[in-house]
Amino acid sequence: MRNLLLPALIFLFIGNKLSAQNGLPQNPEPGKCYIRCITEDKWKDQTKKVMIRPAHKKLAVVPAEYKEVDDTVMVKAPTKRFEYVPAVYKTVVDTIQVVEPYNKINVVPAKLRVSSEDVVYQPAYARFEWKSDIENCKSNDPRDCMVLCYVEYPEQKSPIPTQVLDADASTTSEPVSGKVITIERQVVATPPQVREIEIPAEYEVVKRKVLIKDESVEEVVVEAIYRNETVRVLEEKGGMEVWEEIECNLTDPNVLPIFYELGSARITPESRKIIDEKLYKLMTEKPLIRIEINAHTDSRGSEEFNLDLSQRRAQAVVNYLVSKGIKSNRLIARGYGEAKLINECSDGVECTEEQHAKNRRTEFRVLTN
Fold first, then answer.
1. Which of 49, 112, 132, 161 minimizes the number of CB atoms within 10 Å of its CB?
2. What is the rounded CA–CA span in Å between residue 254 and residue 287?
3. pLDDT tens by residue, 205-251
4. Residue 14 clears pLDDT 70, i.e. is over it
5. What is the C-alpha separation between 266 and 268, in angstroms, rounded?
């Protein structure tokens, strides 16, 4: 049992003196075994508000307003006509403005640029982790083979598409000239002589548009758009050392009586039930322990095939436990193929099916952190 009873005997003889030392279990019981565990970081989800489009203005031009008026324009002045010597006229041209000028307003739209913002879903962190080589440990005390490493984990982030306001909306104006027309009229060049005859004036009605309200700008505020993103925030720092009471034999390889289809790594329904009773129950009751799954084959078939098959079978057990909510960092899958036979049934040795079956096994053991 890898000398795991030795710490129990020490606890039996020394008692409370040993538990009073720093770094050892408090109030140990004789015959009990303990493994050193490291508490995990606790995270919580937090909602972060990200602006994906800033607030800006929209401008619209309100057209100018006019009213029509009728202007009476004299196109021929009154005069006199004389008998025998009529009056002599000449033609003149008058310019009349029928549309007054105004200022035209042009809108320059706001300019938005595509950008992105990195949202940190999980900040960088670091923690102490124990590593040991229990199989190559030559000391009776497993702690002599432990190494404390400070492991850093980088932050995890993801880009979020956003828009950035380069230039807000604005206006420019330009003058627009009005409209004029020309009218020809006759004026007297030489008055009549002899007898005066009154000639009345002649008039013409001209329709004209008068500006009563110039063009203007109407402003509308476009609100900013936000999106809520869920990020992970460290709620409680882990890395604390605690001692977990464990059955002493669980740190040795224990055969897990599960079976697979021939040449397959698919777990049968009967095997799932055994995994639930043996491993899932243990890992939920002891949430800090880590377990190693080892799979072995018999010597029949090639070494490459057997090694790959055993690794897939061990990984299948790990995947099943992960699917039930066990964290993957608490599980290790190792396939040994035919490298660790427990009897003489190697290549070229005739053995019964029962002897070969002893080598086809899946084992588990609790790892000492």
1. 49
2. 19
3. 888 888 888 888 888 888 888 888 887 777 777 667 788 888 888 88
4. no
5. 6
Confidence of residue 57 (pLDDT cuts 50, 70, 90): confident
Residue type, 105: I
pLDDT digits (tens, 9 = 90+) for 323-347: 999 999 999 999 999 999 999 999 9
The encoded tokens of residue 91 equal 């033609």
Residues paired with 151 in a beta bridge: 127
- Tell me how far apart the alpha carbons of residues 333 and 321 are, in angstroms, rounded to a whole number: 12
Query: What does the domain layout of the chain look like in residue ranges?
Result: 1-39, 56-110+168-221, 253-369
**Alpha-carbon distances of 29 from 7, 10, 95, 201, rounded to whole Å:** 11, 11, 119, 133
Give CA separation, 257 vs 51, 112, 167, 199, 254, in Å.
56, 65, 71, 133, 9
Radius of gyration of the chain (CA): 49
Neighbours of 127 (CB within 10 A): 17
Write down the CATH number for the domain with range 253-369.
3.30.1330.60
pLDDT at position 233 = 74
